[in-house]
Amino acid sequence: MSSPPSYRNPAPTVDIIIEIEDQIVLIERKNPPFGWALPGGFVDYGESFEEAARREAKEETGLDVHLLRQLHTYSDPKRDPRQHTVSTVFIARASGTPTGGDDAKTARLYRLDALPPLAFDHASILADYAHFKESGELPRYE
Fold first, then answer.
1. 140 occurs within a structural domain
2. Average pLDDT over residues 37-55
3. Quick one: which of 8, 87, 103, 104 could link to 27 by a disulfide (CB 3.0–4.6 Å)?
4. Looking at the 3D structure of the chain, how many domains does it have?
5. Nearest to 27 by CA among 138, 120, 135, 140
6. Residue at 131 is within a domain
7. For residue 124, which of 55, 75, 68 has the smallest C-alpha distance?
8. Is the residue at 118 inside a domain?
């Protein structure tokens, strides 16, 4: 009897654009790759993407978020240097002051026109978000 085939699949992740008034929350990563990023992380087995987004937001920023909508799913195999990930990005709203937790060294509010250099493909995600906020148009598939 042969063993079942083994497959390498991308890892599902979520990223959350958390709006607080006219700013968004970014985290400074505690682990490689270092730098500033959207809060987010891996979806646990048995967890919905929405549950993962709420959990990751709370763990990394201390904020309880209200999910407003999905922005887009990003799947470029090179988007994360550690492994092939597929991220569903949510737009959420919160109130309060973010504080870094879990694998976030710090969490801060930023205006879209004054962002620090970003890890992963998060600059491109936030460009899509800015276009959506301005035009109401969601990112297009290429």
1. no
2. 98
3. 104
4. 1
5. 120
6. yes
7. 75
8. yes
